């Protein structure tokens, strides 16, 4: 293939992604510098950085940043640790293994909105939910999960969906582990933990890096799970940055402030992206 | 007990543990499907009913009341359309990058992947206003275009890796024999890359089908997808658990079954072909 043809073939993907990045982003930056509220269309004009000031000094801002970090951090820890443990647990021949695998990975394919509603209603509802029924049965006071522990509830809901993702990747990767090496290690008297640290974990280094990276991409902007369960509440207890911007824009109609928030979210995501891509990016290509 | 017996017992415990964990993880899905066959009263009965006379009323009711088929059709069109559009753009690009790489190729791919990290909320308003201006709000077209764009980076990454794995020697040999570029693509590369292209498309369809953010914010009754229809059940007025369960079961069933059948392909896609 000659150079021109190569360029010609590459161009479409690069151009559409450049446009997808530049057009909306520059509009967002522009909106963030002007007064733009859908409720007061007569108020216009350049306002400099005051939208940013408003967004950052909003009482909801610090909790939203904290909630975003706690949410991403906890789900990553839970899914990787639990995913590793379960993948190793089922990495042995036994009857019904195929069914166990299918049951374990199913939650990952459930729509996030369905996932969130099933948990909100049928599991965590304080009167009719199964958790409340179980609490009653053992004589405890049922808990209104989404009101008392809103962020924890969202973490549980998201982890239920993403631990199966980690299981799926780790279990596939474990199948390509060298079994003879493990048998030799067992004969030499290496116990479970010695084998885990020296053989299994190094073998899984790349899958773990990939699981972390993909989950980070999806979790920084978790929206549907919060939208249908707690709506960010009570107060700001389960508001993350994505939901805070959404609330500014579509509930309070303040396009200017919401856009400032959008720019902030983009910067935050980029900081994370730079670190992540430096750390694992090169691992992703053969 | 001998060592062998101890090992056997350990193994039994592990298997019992595996089943227990599997049942716990699967339970909410089982419960959702079960609830979809209950009446609304049975759904909130205390203690919860495990044995009851199943009814299909919910499935017929949602059909009558919510235009389920229309939402399902939107999901099918936007998932397949978005995937097809993205593949159309990605296949030639990834092909060119894999077989004639330059020093900048890997950086371009990483840049593409980094656009995936741009949070959707950051660009929601411009996209909303642009689609409003173009008269595309609540149409399937806008979702097809957006789904193609948000999945393009991942698709490029996976296809690039698949194309790279095709041994260069085969191509060089065929070039020596004077094969044209077109024949090279259709007769040598495509048959070898077919599996990779199929798993990439599968993953893209799954991601589109489950996508909720853009569907909720850009569409309503005309082009709403199943993910948006389900979200509309989140309103606090009244508990319609069994109807919700019926809608949810129908919305999830195709993708879950799909996932069961194509585990291997999806793992390869999800890890950009880096885990086999």
Q: Can you tell me about this structure?
A:
The complex is a heterodimer of chains A (286) and B (276). With 286 residues, chain A is mainly alpha-helical. Chain A is built from 14 helices and no strands. Chain A has a domain at 61-238: MetI-like (MetI-like fold, Orthogonal Bundle). Chain A has helices at residues 3-32, 50-57, 61-89, 97-109, 112-123, 130-137, 145-148, 150-174, 179-187, 192-203, 205-219, 224-228, 241-251, 255-280. In chain A, helix 4 crosses helix 8 (150-174), helix 5 (112-123) packs across helix 8 (150-174) and helix 8 (150-174) runs antiparallel to helix 11. Chain B has helices at 3-35, 40-43, 57-66, 68-99, 105-115, 120-133, 140-164, 168-176, 181-210, 213-218, 226-231, 241-261, 263-270. The longest helix of chain B is centred in the first third of the chain and has 33 residues, at 3-35. Chain B is an all-alpha fold and 276 residues long. Chain B contains 13 helices and no strands. Chain B folds into two domains: 3-57, no CATH class; 67-270, MetI-like (MetI-like fold). At the A-B interface, helix 1, helix 4, helix 5, helix 6 and helix 8 of A face helix 1, helix 4, helix 5, helix 6 and helix 7 of B. Chain B: It is a multi-pass membrane protein. Chain B: This is Mannitol ABC transporter permease. Chain B: InterPro entries: BP-dep_ABC_trans_perm (IPR050901), MetI-like (IPR000515), MetI-like_sf (IPR035906). Chain B: One of its GO terms (cellular component) is plasma membrane.
Low-confidence stretches of chain A: none
Question: What CATH architecture label of the domain at 61-238 in chain A applies?
Answer: Orthogonal Bundle
How do the helices and strands follow one another from N- to C-terminus of chain A?
Answer: HHHHHHHHHHHHHH
Strand content of chain A: under 5%
What's the level 1 CATH class of the domain at 61-238 in chain A?
A: Mainly Alpha
Order of helix and strand elements from N to C terminus of chain B:
HHHHHHHHHHHHH
Q: Helicity level of chain A, as a percent range?
A: over 70%
Q: Kindly report the oligomeric state of this protein.
A: heterodimer
Q: How confident overall, as mean pLDDT of chain A?
A: 85
Question: And the CATH topology of the domain at 61-238 in chain A?
Answer: MetI-like fold
- Count up the helices of chain A: 14
Rounded to the nearest angstrom, the distance between the terminal CA atoms of chain B is: 40 Å
Looking at CATH, the homologous superfamily of the largest domain in chain B is MetI-like
Total strands of chain B: the figure is 0
Secondary structure class of chain A reads mainly alpha
- What's the CATH class label of the largest domain in chain B? Mainly Alpha
Helix content range of the residues of chain B, please? over 70%
Structural classification of chain B: mainly alpha
How much of the residues of chain B is beta strand, in percent?
A: under 5%
Family (chain B): Belongs to the binding-protein-dependent transport system permease family.
Subcellular location (chain B): Cell membrane
Pfam family, one (chain B): BPD_transp_1
Protein name (chain B): Mannitol ABC transporter permease
């Amino acid at each position: 293939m000659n150079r021109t043809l190569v360029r010609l073939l590459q161009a479409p993907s690069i151009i559409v992604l450049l446009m997808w990045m530049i057009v909306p982003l520059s509009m967002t930056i522009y909106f963030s510098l002007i007064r733009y509220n859908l409720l007061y269309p007569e108020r216009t004009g350049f306002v400099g950085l005051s939208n940013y000031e408003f967004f950052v000094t909003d009482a909801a801002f610090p909790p939203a940043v904290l909630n975003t970090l706690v949410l991403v951090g906890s789900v990553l820890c839970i899914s990787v640790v639990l995913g590793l443990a379960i993948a190793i647990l089922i990495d042995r021949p036994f009857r019904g293994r195929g069914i166990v695998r299918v049951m374990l990975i199913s939650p990952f394919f459930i729509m996030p909105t369905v996932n969130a509603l099933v948990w909100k209603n049928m599991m965590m509802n304080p009167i009719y939910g199964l958790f409340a029924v179980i609490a009653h049965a053992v004589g405890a006071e049922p808990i209104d999960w989404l009101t008392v522990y809103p962020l924890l509830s969202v973490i549980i809901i998201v982890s239920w969906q993403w631990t199966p993702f980690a299981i799926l990747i780790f279990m596939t990767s474990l199948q390509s582990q060298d079994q003879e090496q493990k048998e030799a290690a067992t004969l030499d008297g290496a116990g479970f933990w010695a084998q885990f640290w020296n053989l299994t974990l190094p073998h899984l280094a790349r899958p773990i890096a990939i699981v972390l990276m993909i989950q980070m991409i999806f979790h920084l902007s978790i929206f549907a799970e919060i939208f249908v369960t707690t709506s960010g509440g009570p107060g700001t207890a389960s508001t993350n940055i994505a939901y805070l911007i959404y609330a500014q824009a579509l509930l309070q109609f303040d396009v200017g402030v919401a856009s400032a928030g959008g720019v902030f979210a983009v910067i935050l995501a980029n900081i994370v992206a730079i670190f992540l891509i430096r750390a694992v990016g090169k691992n992703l290509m053969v | 007990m001998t060592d062998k017996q101890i090992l056997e017992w350990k193994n039994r415990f592990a298997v019992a543990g595996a089943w227990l964990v599997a049942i716990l993880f699967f339970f909410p899905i089982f419960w959702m499907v079960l609830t979809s066959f209950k009446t609304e009263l049975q759904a909130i009965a205390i203690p919860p009913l495990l044995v009851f006379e199943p009814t299909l009323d919910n499935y017929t009711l949602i059909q009558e009341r919510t235009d389920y088929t229309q939402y399902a059709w939107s999901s099918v069109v936007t998932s397949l359309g978005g995937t097809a559009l993205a593949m159309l753009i990605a296949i030639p690009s990834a092909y060119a990058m894999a077989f004639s790489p330059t020093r900048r190729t890997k950086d371009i791919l990483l840049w593409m992947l980094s656009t995936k990290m741009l949070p959707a909320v950051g660009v929601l308003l411009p996209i909303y206003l642009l689609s409003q201006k173009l008269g595309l709000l609540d149409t399937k077209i806008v979702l097809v275009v957006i789904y193609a764009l948000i999945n393009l980076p991942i698709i490029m990454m996976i296809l690039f890796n698949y194309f790279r794995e095709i041994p260069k020697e085969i191509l060089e040999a065929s070039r020596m024999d004077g094969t044209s570029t077109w024949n090279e693509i259709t007769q040598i590369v495509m048959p070898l890359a077919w599996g990779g292209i199929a798993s990439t498309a599968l993953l893209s369809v799954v991601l589109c089908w489950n996508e909720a953010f853009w569907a909720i914010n850009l569409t309503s009754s005309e082009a709403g997808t199943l993910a948006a229809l389900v979200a509309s059940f989140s309103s606090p007025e009244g508990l319609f658990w069994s109807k919700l369960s019926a809608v949810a079961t129908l919305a999830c069933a195709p993708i879950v079954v799909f996932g069961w059948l194509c585990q291997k392909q999806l793992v390869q896609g999800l890890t950009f072909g880096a885990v086999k």
